Amino acid sequence: MVRIEARRFRRLAATCPRRIFAERLPESTAGPWARRALGDIQRHLGLALGGEAGARLAQRLAMPASGDMLLRLVRQTVPRASADTVKFGLAGSLGRRYGAGMTTRPDPLHAGDRFPAEVIGYAVRLSFRFPLSLRMGEEMLALRGSTVSHETVRQCGLTFGRVIATRIRQQRLARGDEWHLDEVMISSAGKRHHLWRAVGWDGFVRARLVQRRRATTAAKRLLCKLLKKPGRAPRVLITDTLQSHAAAQQDLQLRGEHRRHQGLNNRAESSHRPTRRRERPRKRFTSPQQVQCFLSIHDPIDNLIHLRRDHRPASEHRTARARAFAAWAEVAA
User: What pLDDT, on the 0 to 100 scale, is given for residue 30?
Assistant: First the structure.
């Protein structure tokens, strides 16, 4: 270890522009710009590794510096960019800031994100469009060069999935005045619950509701939720033979026609299949709140990419699929 001592001098004359002077060391001991060279090394560490990782490497190289100091050096070097450049990103889990010089879209939804909007939209689509587990989504993102954990995939789906689902609801309002109502039993946390769902004539899910009971009160809550949405009252209600639907319609004084038959409600019963397919890879739902949160994001995304193959040639199906992909790119950007 070499110990170096240098003296510092304070000015006395008020006319001198500098306040403190330092004694020059011999050039054989340290160059005149040694401190600037050290700053260049720390700045390059910040550019290459970011704040926290660069600080850890600097500590091992015997030139300790905090993460904030490295990022400060980077900000002094990199010229101020326009609104489409974001200087900080997200580390492995959402909400922890780290990194520098990350370029993404100017959308405030993705401000401060580690990954661009395309990767985030791809993660949301894997989580809600396909029946995959979180670890499967982690592996598929790794194949595309994005190293994240399964917990990051889950947080990304919840954080950005709500925003994307809201955009889809605002752009694609439910159409038609023919409602198909049905309920199915689900198990969460070892308890039985009933998932009530309303589907339009075109197969779009209009509303969903998780209730403990299969009674008139639950049917009325579903109908009230439907009536609050923009649109007109139903002209036709199609249900199975459950008496709760008729009692709820009578209590709410709906004048539409009510058709009850076990074979007429296949459209609503088929809408439960995607939920069942996604329930198995996730090892079932843990609470009714989780079911409601998952379906509130899943159903609008499924409505956006809802492609029907019945009585449609392959050319029309590919055209509709291309339109759906373009709509997804617009809402997920």
Answer: 58
Name every residue whose Cβ is closer than 8 Å to that of residue 290 and which is 6 or more positions away in sequence. Answer: 188
The residue type of 85 is T
CA-to-CA separations, 240 to 15, 111, 155, 249, 311, in angstroms, rounded: 95, 48, 38, 14, 26
The end-to-end CA distance of the chain, in Å, is: 56
Kindly report the pTM of this predicted structure: 0.58
Amino acid identity at 49: L
Three-state SS for 10-31 is ECCCCCCCCCEEECCCCCCCCC
pLDDT for position 109: 62
Alpha helices in the chain (DSSP H): 34-49, 51-60, 67-77, 117-128, 134-143, 150-171, 216-228, 243-252, 266-270, 273-279, 288-304, 314-332
| Alpha carbon distance 145, 120 (integer Å) | 13
Q: Domains, the chain, ranges and CATH? A: 16-77 (no CATH), 85-171 (no CATH), 178-286 (3.30.420.10)
Tell me which residues of the chain have a pLDDT lower than 50. 80-106
Residue 38's nearest CA partner among 67, 6, 62, 13 is 62
Distance CA 92, CA 183 (A): 39
Q: Residue 252 CB: number of other CB atoms within 10 A? A: 13
Cα distances (Å, whole numbers) of residue 146 to 119, 131, 150: 8, 20, 12
Residue with tokens 């995959």: 132
Q: What pairing do the DSSP bridges indicate for beta strands 102-103 and 85-86? A: antiparallel
Q: Which structure tokens are listed for 79?
A: 């010229």
C-alpha distances in angstroms, 30 versus 12, 27, 65, 78, 304? Answer: 28, 5, 20, 28, 66
Q: Phi and psi of 199, rounded to 5°?
A: -125, 140
